[in-house]
Structure formats: C-alpha cells, structure tokens
Amino acid sequence: MTGFYLLPEFYYIFFLSGLVLFCIVYSTSLKLHYPLLIKSALLNSLYLFGLIFFMYMNTFSYNEFVSYMTLQVTSYTTLLKLVIVVLSFFLLLLTLSYIKYEKINSFEYVILVLLSILGLLFLLSTNNIIILFLSLELQSLSFYILCSYQRTKEASIEAGLKYFIFGSFASALLLFGVALLYGLTGITYFSDFAVVYSKIPNFDLLDIMSLRLGIDTFFSGFTTDNAIALLGLTLLIVGFLFKLYAVPFHVWVPDIYEGSPTSVTALFALLPATAIFGFFVKVLYVSFLPFIDHWSLILLITSTLSLILGAFAAIAQKRIKRLIAYSSIGHTGYLLLGLSSGSIEALNATFFYVISYSIMTLAFFSAYMSLRKQVTGVLVEYIADFRALLKQNPIIAAALAVAFFSMAGIPPLLGFFSKLYIFLSVAEQYRYFFLFLCITTSAVGAYYYLNVVRVMFFETKSQWVLFRKVPGELAFLLAISIFAIVLFVVHPSFFIALSYKLTFLLLL
C-alpha cells in the first residue's frame, strides 16, 4: 500500500500522457477540420487538479513518512503539494481568460505548464540529488519555452534567451555543487547527508579557508573535508538562489517578467516562490543543519542585497511588470532574512510570509489581467495607464488598492502581519541593524506601491481609455484573493495554523 502515497503523481503522469496523445491525434485530423484543442486541454487540466487535490487530502496525515529512497513522502511535502495544486488551479483559471484574448491556439502551451508543475511536485518529494536535478530541469526547460512562447514579439524571444543562458549557468553551478557533495561522501540521498554531517564537529568560518578539518565517519573508505563540503553546499545554495530571484542572481528577472506572456509571468511569480522555497527550507534545516553558521551567513548577505535593490530599484520603474519584478526580489529578501535566523519562530514567520505573498500576488494578477483596452484588447503596460481608474472601473481600482496596501504592509491587512512576524523574528535574534534595514526598505517599498494607488485615485487623464468586460474566471479569482486578504483581519487563525503546521511537520 505504500505506492498509494504516490498515486496523485502517477495519475498526473498518466493524464498528461493521455492528454498529449489525444491532442496530437485530434489536432491533426483532417476529418475534424484540425480543431483547436487548447481550451479543451485547459478545462481537462482544471479537472485534473481538482481530482488530485482530493487525492492529496485523502493521503494526508500528521504521522506520514513513506520512503522510496529516491522519493520521500512526508506530511510536510504533502501539505506543500496541496498548496501548489490550489495555486496551479488558480493559475490555469488566469490562463483560461488570457489565451482567449491573446489568441494562443497551440495546445502545447498547456502541456508545458503541466510539465513545469509536474517538475515542482516531484521536486518536493525528492530525496536524491539526481532526481533533484532532473526535477529542476523539467521545470526550467518548460519555463524557457513558455517565456519565449510569443515568437512574433522580440521582447519574448529576448526574455527566453536570457532565461535560458542564466538558467543554464545556475544549473551548472548546482550540478557542480551536488557533484562535490557526492564525490566527498559517495552518497546521493539527502537523508543520508543529515546523518553524515551530524558527525562533523563545530568549526570557525573565518578559519575554514586555511584549515583542513577532516574527520573519519562511520562510513569506511572515505574522510569528510569541511572545506569541500562547504564549497559544494555554497554552489548548491547559489543554484537555488537563482531560482528564487535573489540578488546578485537577479539580473534576468525584470526582463523575464516584462517579456513573457502575462500568464507565464504569474506562473513565475507564484509557483517557484512556494515549491522551490519549500524544498530549499527542507534541505537547509534537515540535511545541512550542521552547517547553519555557513548557510545562514550566505542567506543574510543575499537577503540584505535583495531588500536594498528590490526597494530602491523599483522606484524608478515606469512599467508595471518591471515594478512587480523588483517587488518580487524585495519579497525574496524578507523570506531569506527570516530563513537565516535559524529559529522555529523565524521559520514559522517565513512560511506565513510565503502564504501571504502568494495570496497578494494572485490578487494583483487577477486585477491586472482584467484591464484590457476596449479597442486593442491589450493589457495596460505603464503605471501611467492606471490614471483615473477609480472613475472608469471602481471595483478593479479598489481591488488593486487592497492588494497594493497589503504588499506595502499597511495595517490591518494580511501583508502587514506577514512583515511584522519577520520583523519580530529578526529582533528576537538581536539583529537590530537588519531590523532597521527591514523597516527602511519596507517604507521605501510602501512608497512605490502607494504611488500606483495615487495614480489610480487622484490623477486624471486627458483622453479616456475604455476597458473590456472582466471575464468571469478573473472576477472569481479576484473575489477569492481579496476576500483572503481581508479575512485575516477578522479570522487570522487559518493562515497562522497553516504556517505552524508546515513548521511543525518539517521539524517532526
């Protein structure tokens, strides 16, 4: 019965294979006049995620631990997969309206989205460095193609090429890191790394480059050298930091956000921040906890740089998608700062921030993708296009204002408490400089968020721009996400309980 715990993944693969076969056969049928199957593929994919959501619900328990060596199913991974499945369902709803207006008729678009999500689901369960690399590459290769899917647009092709070049470099660093760890220990399982490195004595980071601290482990035939282990771990962390948009591995992010199709931008903004970060936390806190002095220092440096650049670089942006790109970098800084603290309270605050960020990002994209110009049918591009939105569409303007207020950390919305918990976890570690940095960058971030609200509410335009009717699926998503942001004010227990569950299940 242990295979039952991987039933959702098996069904996902079976469904995906059947969908590919169905679309290939029917889309090339002369008898059926070469039908366009992308909408059918999307609707069936929505059914898929609805079904595997209930599969994960039926397999979830608080004492769950099933190991297949290369894959490991725990309560922590199952709960994270539930979150990923829900977010994926919402993203497909965003895509449903997007393909209708952008006239994307290729069913391969949906196949690539499903492949990227499949890679993330396997990533959460992986216990093997080889499966780790394959899962990340499955997700990355799908993202490369999706990024450049609009072949007639130069910006999309440029974005895909940049993503491919930088992504290949990051994958090479990650692969080199895991190769060093494998060459050092001869093992490929993350659970075994935790056992091996628990035998390593404490060391001084300042002396690590000059001292060779070797120990004999209970594995006969090799010795463990801390310097090589630290180098391998550092390269592994760098590979993950690239996937999480952290500074200084961020240079590709604004161009990717701007050049990609908007539904793909939403995919980039939502899923990696949850899935890859969830696995990244598990690797650091379970497999490489003995090296906490080392990786916490790396995260502290990158979080500081991400907070500063994300806050100040966004001020000068005129395009809304580039502003959101730098905003994502800043949010990554808060996540890494909480993760670097190394305490249970900080870990809980970090999970809470991930949940809050996902909801706020979903609210923004649901509102933003509703603003299509009546004549051309294209989405607004510049912040100046939001002028007088309150008079043209007060409901969308109010929803965007709530999303931006929450992102800025205005009380009593969800975003305020997510930042507050990060601030408290930093103060608990007596890191007052970083607490001051957080407050400063949060204030700067509030400026560019509230500037968009000012443009919507108080600026006027000489020529009115009419917007198309909001699609039903976007209205549904917007209502749910805004309701979740406001719900925290009156009923915060659900989100707090979810973050505590993730923390508890990770450390169980």
From TrEMBL:
Q: Which UniProt keywords apply?
A: Membrane, Mitochondrion, Transmembrane, Transmembrane helix
Transmembrane stretches, by residue range? 12-29, 41-59, 79-99, 106-124, 161-184, 227-246, 267-288, 294-316, 350-371, 395-418, 430-453, 474-498
Which GO molecular function entries does the Swiss-Prot or TrEMBL record give?
NADH dehydrogenase (ubiquinone) activity
Q: Name one GO biological process term.
A: ATP synthesis coupled electron transport
Name the NCBIfam families on file: NDH_I_N
One Gene Ontology cellular component: membrane
State what protein this is by name.
NADH dehydrogenase subunit 2
Give the way it sits in the membrane: Multi-pass membrane protein
Q: Which domain of life is it from?
A: Eukaryota
Q: Which residues form the NADH:quinone oxidoreductase/Mrp antiporter transmembrane domain?
A: 127-442
Subcellular location per the Swiss-Prot or TrEMBL entry: Membrane
Q: What is its main location?
A: membrane
